[in-house]
Amino acid sequence: MDSVQQLASGFTLDLGPLKEPLGFIRVLEWVFTIFAFATTGGYSGSSHFTVNCIGAEPKDVSPAFAYPFRLPKSPYQIPLCNGSTPDDTYLQGDFSSSAEFFVCVGVFGFLYCTATLVLYLGFQHVYRLTSRGPTIDLVVTAAFAFLWLVSSSAWGKGLTDVKWATNPGHLVMNDQCNSTCKAGEFPSMGRLNASVIFGFLNLMLWAGNCWFIYKETPFHKVPNPPATMEEEGAPGP
């Protein structure tokens, strides 16, 4: 009831927590979380190879793919040298589960960072009123650290599989190509490589922040200061 009354008493902006590790690291988490899911979601790219038929101009083929990396979703066609209508060909592999899990962790991490920053800067008196706030914060932050570990590892493996499935050297081994196809430019995946790096950076930030939140909880016992001479009393005769 006291917490509700304190919360209803109004927002009081205090930028002091940003000068402390607790608030400063939370801001870094907020920024790197945005980078993590933004570099993954919305990505689109294409692989490239050419079909070289005798007596004809080379024809470019660009199989496209995009987040969430359900590769068979977008068909492409490989021109045939005999002039007949080619059948649809599909990229192989569905890597949406690891990609969507990674983005989901990032989005929820961003929302949690936003909520706790509002709490730190506007309702610090409520946050420190009881031990419940820091304790819940510690548990949730530790849970996110674990989720970043799992999702970044899964997405790193998924990205490796995406690279293999879209490698032009692999695509030209298609039965329709025979010996007429030549591998072209590899898809640009700098953004996706960065997303994995941001994922593991988030892991380190969230795991490291657990220590500073732990210091706000009652589990962290501050050692008693040594007694002064006055407290010890005058020495005996």
TrEMBL record:
Localization, UniProt: Membrane
Q: Does the keyword Glycosyltransferase apply?
A: no
Q: Does the keyword Membrane apply?
A: yes
InterPro entries hit by this protein: Marvel, Synaptophysin/porin
**Where is each MARVEL domain found?**
17-218
Q: Which parts of the chain are coiled coil? A: none
What PANTHER family does the entry give?
Answer: SYNAPTOPHYSIN (PTHR10306), SYNAPTOPHYSIN-LIKE 2A (PTHR10306:SF29)
Indicate where this protein is primarily found: membrane
State the family it belongs to. Answer: Belongs to the synaptophysin/synaptobrevin family.
Chain segments annotated as transmembrane: 99-123, 135-155, 194-214
> What is this protein's record name?
MARVEL domain-containing protein
Listed A to Z, the keywords are: Glycoprotein, Membrane, Transmembrane, Transmembrane helix
The positions making up the signal sequence are none
GO CC field: synaptic vesicle membrane
Q: Which organism is it from?
A: Champsocephalus esox
Topology relative to the membrane: Multi-pass membrane protein
Top-rank lineage group of the source organism:
Eukaryota
